[in-house]
Design a protein that fits this description.
Largest sheet: 4 strands, antiparallel
Structural class: alpha+beta
Order of helices and strands: EHHEEHHE
CATH topology: Alpha-Beta Plaits
Number of helices: 4
Oligomer: single chain
Radius of gyration: 14 Å
Number of domains: 1
Helix content: 25-40%
Number of strands: 4
Strand order of the largest sheet: 2-3-1-4
CATH architecture: 2-Layer Sandwich
Shape: globular
């Protein structure tokens, strides 16, 4: 595969802060608990969760295409396993975007 060619792949990039009182360790544990459900979603490719020195978190999920990303969002938001993860995210701090993957490099 030409790794410089644009693809239909989509990066779902969500940035946010944790609610007061949430610990990084508890949040990462809650994120881990969502892995089986995310991995079972059609079109799921990979996920990275990062935390900046300023406390801003980024959840980076790559999907095969935008329809897969949208379908997965609907499915996982209704799943009870996602509730603890979502409860630790400060709602007003959330930004979400879907970007086309233009370059892939391992």
């Amino acid at each position: 595969m030409d790794k410089t060619a644009p693809t239909a792949r989509v990066a779902e990039i969500v940035t946010f802060r944790l609610v007061a009182g949430s610990t990084a360790e508890a949040f990462v544990d809650a994120a881990r608990a969502t892995e089986p459900l995310l991995q079972a979603q059609p079109g799921f490719l990979r996920r990275r969760l990062t935390r900046g020195a300023d406390g801003l978190w980024t959840d980076f999920v790559e999907w095969c295409d935008l329809p897969a990303a949208h379908a997965a969002a609907e499915a996982v938001m209704q799943a009870p396993v996602f509730a603890p993860f979502m409860a630790m995210i400060e709602g007003p701090s959330v930004t979400l975007r879907h970007d086309a993957v233009a370059l892939e490099m391992d």
